[in-house]
Amino acid sequence: MKRVEFEAVIGLEVHAQLSTKSKIFCSCSAAFGAPPNENTCPVCTGMPGVLPVLNRKVVEFAIRTAIATSCTVQGKSVFARKNYFYPDLPKAYQISQYELPLALAGHIDIGIEGASKRIGITRIHMEEDAGKLVHEGEFAGAQASLADLNRCSVPLMEIVSEPDIRTPEEAGAYLRSLRDILVYLEVCDGNMEEGSFRCDANVSVRPKGRNEFGTKAELKNMNSFRNVEKAIEFEIRRQVELIEDGGKVVQETRLWDAAAGVTISMRGKEEAHDYRYFPDPDLLPLIVDDAWNEELRKTIPELPRDKVARFVKTYAIPRYDAEILASSRALADFFEASAAVYNANPKLTANECIHWKDEVAAGKLSPETIAHAVEDRETGAISATASKTLVELSIRTGKPIRQLRDEKGLTQVSDAGAIEDAVAKVLAANPKEAESYRNGKTGLLSFFVGQVMKETRGKANPKIVQEVIRKKLG
Amino acid sequence: MAITREEVLHVARLARLSLSEAEVGRLRDQLDDILDYIRQLEALDTRDVIPTSHAVEMGTPFRDDAVRPFGDKEAILSNAPDRIGDFFRVPRIIED
Amino acid sequence: MHEWSLLDAARKVRGKDISSRELTRALLDRIERANPKINAYITVLHEKAMKDALACDEASARGQATGPLHGVPVGLKDIFCTRGIRTTCGSRILHDFLPPYDATVAEKIAASGAVLLGKQNMDEFAMGSSTETSHFGPARNPWATDRIPGGSSGGTAAAVAAGLCFAGVGTDTGGSIRQPASVCGVVGIKPTYGRVSRYGMIAFASSLDQGGPVARSVPDAAAVLAVIAGHDRRDSTSVDLPVPDYVAATGKDARGLKIGLPREYFEGEGLDPEVKAAVGKALAALVAQGAEAVEISLPHTSFALSAYYIIAPAEASSNLARYDGVRYGYRAKDAGGLIEMMSKTRAEGFGAEVKRRIMIGTYALSAGYYEAYYGKAQKVRTLIRRDFESAFAKADVILTPTTPTPAFRLGEKTEDPLRMYLSDIFTIPCNLAGIPGISVPCGMSPEGLPIGAQLLGNHFREEILLTAAAAIERAIPLPRVAPVEGT
């Protein structure tokens, strides 16, 4: 296969909407979903004479992100104007950062096929979002567009990766890891479908072993992690086939068409932009001193990757389970709180937490409830089925699980003596089957267990039932 | 190093200014004069000089992250040359 | 009474010798007679001014005379946004714009108790030295109505000189307060960059613009400066420093002040000998009062104009990009698609000078040219700042002419933009360095045209400027109100 000769070189640009209450340069609400032009003021709508004032929290969020991704936070960074005309850009320039961004030279370690790979981060900077343009009436043939400026000046953080990514899977892993970090830091809600986490991809190919980069295409319009992976996969194939057919890859922007599963060239439709960047004279250089850096470093929580590693090591649970638990800080904390109450079977505790993760997220469960459920199962006080019932009841009534257990009489009978009576009864009632068992049909064990469970109305501890039956039948 | 007609048109397009033929010619001459005068700066050796982008040096001023709504959507919309409901209305981009 | 100084008028209102309504009525009547001749005002607030004056008088009657300028009628250059009051910036593109908010300067003037008479004429978007680029017609010099009143705050200076307000607030980016003040025979101050808030002051060149007072005497100008100066959280370039007692500074004497004389400002052929002589008299007046003349050099002066005519248009090209016909202002009719609408709107909404500067600025910032033009100009700016830093090690204030010649005739320089730009040669370096400057009348030409002397000071040393300027003013009394025929 000729394909083996090529390798893909992929870099990802993520725009994350920061979840501050107010916008980056004015005090309007940054909340999503308001009626058109509700969250506006003279500043974010670019009226004559207005001036920007920087939201300190935006800077904090960006610095914390930089620290969490091992970037070097620059002591001085500068806001610059990116000039272009569009109806969703009221000042006809976007305030961004250009030559001197907030942070440089970091990395994220991703897990790919059981191994760890380091993806570099070139830079992180802050900028303001633009508004939304919708087309009036029918899509094609509409004569006018309508501008909603609510989103203008909502704070964005742009994170640019080094072109270290080589496969669509690595791209997906990078995006998921980055998103998880941002959600952990509580700086972004990481929702690609809603647009609070956006990604563009730069894709090029080159013969394996070559150092120079091939010509890259920029892919846009991918609204989920899966779509990013599919778009990159398609684009790699397209470029390789193009080159193999003797063609040349053109540097251009291509839109991902999810329905058709192809990338489409924007060439000819877009203007070559000359953004005429220059430092914004209305904003002073941003100075971040060591003291501020240190203060913010202390607020960085244990990050997902480290938490997963620690869970695997400390609790001896499988990596897969650890990753699910770590996918939400709240769930991870819940798990640890529960394991602190009862730590004899962390794997079971983990399973329970994972099973009930939606209820945990909704705040309907306490760590004690799960801890007690696990403990009672371990000691044989309740069966697995009873455990599920009791947890559900506890969620519904809010009563503690042991109280409910006693009220409902769900305590399992684990006393061998009581069970022996039931077993004796069942064996006496089924002499033929007992004989078959003794003659080698050991599969009948489950039949007997079922009968004993029926006899005890489900209360017997099935493990002990098995033991007793085996003993009695020899 | 005269500025060409093409450059004038290119800059006019970047700046969204439509120019008549007469204006293009006139601007070409005037810009040429001005740029010629400005080029005297080339004579200055500024290799080791730091650019000044702000006249007065100070620490960065901040705002805190509190929402203070402007509270008058109508005022924001009422100056609009073309408005429909609470939207600003503009012509579509026509591909050329 | 239109000839009174601001401080006298304020005193008389406070002392109830005259009501705000009488004062305001007198000035509105005078504006009605004089404005057709000198076109100092774009918008006159006939009703609102009288309403405000009434409110002032009622407050006085209750013993609640509010601020230092209580009841005194003043004007604002039409570059300051005033809520609900048309603000045009001298341009067709904002000809019907009603701001939904007040500039900080407008708020402070209102809080001082002053009565706003109207919005004053100016060069379009503050780009000009003669107020001839105004969409609303040129303003005229009240001393000779065939002459320019200077620009871009020409309407403000003309209004003050013609007794059509007791003071005004203009803006200065390359000399636009000082030069009109000089050619109109009044006092104008460009404060230190960051001294006066730029919030609501329609931006021309953000790193150079400053608002400042225009008045008929140095103490008057000091009083207005005290009202408008101060930190503003809405302007990130505004400086948080206490406002000193500017009026008191005008009473101090000039003894012991070192007056720097930069040879580069006195050498050029363009400098009118009458102007040179008049500034010489101002120097003599200071020396007679105990000041000392010191020769200094500002070696990079000749490069300041070029640096300015890159930086200012570059920033302006970006600041004026928001005028695209989408959210406010003029929009061209019968345009096809979006790009055509924007291009036609701006072509029809802007005048020739504005378009010219947008073109220069866009070019200077465009790909491939940034380092050669804008980048270079910002470095030259550093050199100019250093010149002043060295100079202020030797001198307390620097004395220069404000303009090379007295007022030229209308139409004299409009065909040659470069010649027009050259008339800013003495005022521009000060904006590049961010230092404060004042123009004070120091003579009259044989034709009866005012001549001004400029004083420059170090950052936030406006008091020294006021002391020296007041000293000149006391030594060289000159008529401050121009007789406008038929008024």
Termini distance of chain C?
13 Å
What amount of the residues of chain C lies in strands?
Answer: 5-15%
Report the biggest beta sheet of chain A as strand number plus sense, adding barrel if it closes.
9 strands, mixed
- Helical content of chain A (DSSP H or I, runs of 4+): 25-40%
What is the element string of chain C, with H for helices and E for strands? HHEHEHEHEHEEHHEHHEHHHHEHHEEH
CATH homology group of the domain at 6-255 in chain C: Amidase signature (AS) domain
Q: For the terminal residues of chain A, how far apart are their CA atoms?
A: 63 Å
Helix content of chain C: 40-55%
- Percent of residues in beta strands of chain A: 15-25%
Quick check: average pLDDT of chain A?
Answer: 91
Q: Given the helix and strand composition of chain C, which structural class is it?
A: alpha/beta
Biggest sheet details of chain C = 11 strands, mixed
Strand order of the largest sheet of chain A: 3-7-8-11-1-12-13-14-15
The count of DSSP E runs of length 2 or more, i.e. the number of strands of chain C, is 11
Question: Number of helical runs of chain A?
Answer: 16
Largest interface: B-C, 53 and 70 residues
Estimated structural class of chain A = alpha+beta
The total strand number of chain A stands at: 17
Can you give a write-up of this model?
The complex is a heterotrimer of chains A (about 475), B (about 100) and C (about 475). Chain A is built from 16 helices and 17 strands. Chain A is of the alpha+beta class. In chain A, strands 3-7-8-11-1-12-13-14-15 form a 9-stranded mixed sheet. In chain A, strands 6-5-16 form a 3-stranded antiparallel sheet, with no helix packed on it. In chain A, helix 2 runs antiparallel to helix 3 (about 225-245). The model of chain A has no long low-confidence stretch (mean pLDDT about 90). Chain B is an alpha+beta fold. Among the domains of chain C are: about 5-255, Alpha-Beta Complex (Amidase signature (AS) enzymes); about 305-375, no CATH class. Chain C is globular. In chain C, helix 2 packs antiparallel against helix 3. Chain C has helices at about 5-15, 20-40, 45-60, 105-110, 155-160, 180-185, 220-230, 245-250, 265, 275-290, 300-320, 340-350, 350-365, 370-395, 415-420, 430-435, 460-475; strands at about 40-45, 75, 115-120, 165-170, 185-190, 210-215, 260, 290-295, 395-400, 435-445, 450-455. In chain C, about 65% of the residues are buried. The chains are: A alpha+beta (about 475), B alpha+beta (about 100), C alpha/beta (about 475). At the A-B interface, strand 2, helix 1, strand 10 and strand 17 of A face strand 1, helix 3 and strand 3 of B.
